[in-house]
Amino acid sequence: MDKQEATRTCGQCHKEVAEVNFALHETHCTRFLVPCPDCQEMVHKEHLDTHREEQHTLVKCSKCHQKMERCQLLDHESDECEQRLQTCQFCDLELPVKDLQDHDVVCGSRTELCMECGRYVTLRLRPGHASTCPGVHNGSGPPESTGKLTPNKVSCSRCWASFPVEVIEEHKRGCVSSMTLLDDEDEEVDIEDEDQLEEEEHNGLDVSELGATIYEAPHFLSSRPSRYPGVEEGKKEDPDQISCCPHCHLALPFPTLRWHQVKCEIHAVLK
After folding, report:
1. Are 107 and 123 in contact (CB under 8 A)?
2. How crowded is residue 5: how many other Cβ atoms within 10 Å of its Cβ?
3. Strand pairing category for 67-69 and 58-60
4. For the chain, where are the alpha helices, taking DSSP H only?
């Protein structure tokens, strides 16, 4: 095995040179090479000015306008510049690095609906959600919305009560007939009551003597409320006075309250 060749370090370029060639190398190095005053790199005397211009001239970064030597520009633009663009991991939008952190906090807090389990998951947790999603592991889809009726029930457009699909048509016929008859009855009673009140007042009779005969009328739910709730018996009602419905507590003028109260009672029973 050949012995390792002996080497010496050149005092000019600081390179390891074979000892047998050291004298020739040192002579050549001293004659033609000089250290760059900016980076101390050994450069050929004829190329020193070109080297300094290409490597050490001051330039500005086109994004942040910071000054630096030309040899540092590439590293600065790729790794250090605060204005360099990077892509948001959540929305793929390109933003300057200095704004990206604040953007990620907001953007990563947005939620998206998981089509497997029906839950809303933040974008930041979405990668890990796939491994814990109950919809993926159980093979079940998103749950049905609780705000809607189940498929086998529908609402009556008249009274808004819920009924099975099989009986909704029968209910609608009865619901419409009942409401129509009640409306006709209300109109007839209102006309008769008004005519009777005018006649009695014209004859000088006290309205209170009529009692429940005028104000009461039978219907299929319960006894009919007084014509104008809140009016003391024997006193003439004031059409501008307002009272509350005992069922929904809606404040209405007396002429409107009577028929509203009957319909409100029907709606409450049908719920």
Report:
1. yes
2. 8
3. antiparallel
4. 22-32, 48-56, 70-75, 97-107, 126-132, 134-138, 168-202, 212-215, 254-270
For residue 194 the two structure tokens come to 């008004």
Residue found by looking up tokens 């109109």 in the block: 187
Mean pLDDT computed over 77-93:
91
Gyration radius of the chain's alpha carbons: 48
Specify the pTM. 0.38
The domains of the chain, with CATH numbers, are 1-56 (3.30.40), 168-270 (no CATH)
Dist CA 10 CA 27 (whole Å): 10
Banded pLDDT at 60 (limits 50, 70, 90): very high
Question: Which backbone phi and psi does 162 adopt, to 5 degrees?
Answer: -95, 135
Residue with tokens 């952190």: 101
Q: Which two tokens stand for residue 185?
A: 């009855």
- Sorted by sequence, the CB contacts under 8 Å of residue 269 that are 6+ apart come out as 221
Please provide the average confidence, as pLDDT, over all residues in the chain: 72
- Map residue 155 onto helix, strand or coil: strand
The pLDDT of residue 87 is 93
Which two tokens mark 193? 């009551």
CA distance 92 to 90: 6
* Beta-bridge partner residues of 242: 253
